[in-house]
Amino acid sequence: MIRADTIHKAFGSKRVLRGVSFEVAKGESLVIIGGSGTGKSVLLKCLLGLERADSGTVQVAGLTNPRPQILAEHVGMLFQGAALFDSLPVWQNIAFRLMRGKDNLGHEAAHKLAVEKLARVGLGPETADLYPAELSGGMQKRVGLARAIAGDPPVLFFDEPTAGLDPIMSSVINALIREVVSELGATAVTITHDMRTVHDVADRVAMLHDGQFYWEGPTAEAFSTTDPVMQQFTQGLTEGPIPTLR
After folding, report:
1. Which of 82, 91, 99, 144 has its C-alpha lying 20 to 30 A from 137's C-alpha?
2. pLDDT tens across 30-82, in order?
3. Distance (Å, whole) CA 154 – CA 156
């Protein structure tokens, strides 16, 4: 469902991605880890067509190097900060894309759909008419997840889904992600620093390091490998091959 073939991306003299290649099978949940500034978000933008790779190809849901407007029909995205539209009520946030373009849902159908998706993420129908400023951080993340799954897309992307949440709410969001991915039979890619998310969400883990996928493997092996780079990152060690500022 997702394939990246030798993706290179640079910004001026700074080479961010140096030949990243990987595949994600249908129904698989891949979690990409790596330090800040290693290119995880750039890679995600390349997969979504928001950035064009300097070379290499991207395939998502059978589309090669798709434009974001076309890809939007096939993917759902949960942004790091939820990225809700402050001026729109929750139900219009959830059904935003489906009320436009070829879907063109009317207000009544869109409101009904939004209430159904809110229920799926554990929020009541009264939430539909609230505005984002009236929601807690955890509720905003749930609304963002409801929007991501609104069209039952075959591919889902999650950008730091637990950022800014307390440990309990992080576990709730991770559990919801795992459940909706399984229910939809969706293919998922998550980028995160949160090792709890890796435990809860991943079928397979990949570490982006020095512009390439340095390590790939099953989730259990990500925490049991003796590789010094993986050990340093997953255990949060200050000593090791990854340089740290002191």
Report:
1. 99
2. 999 998 888 999 999 999 999 999 999 999 999 998 888 889 889 999 988 77
3. 7
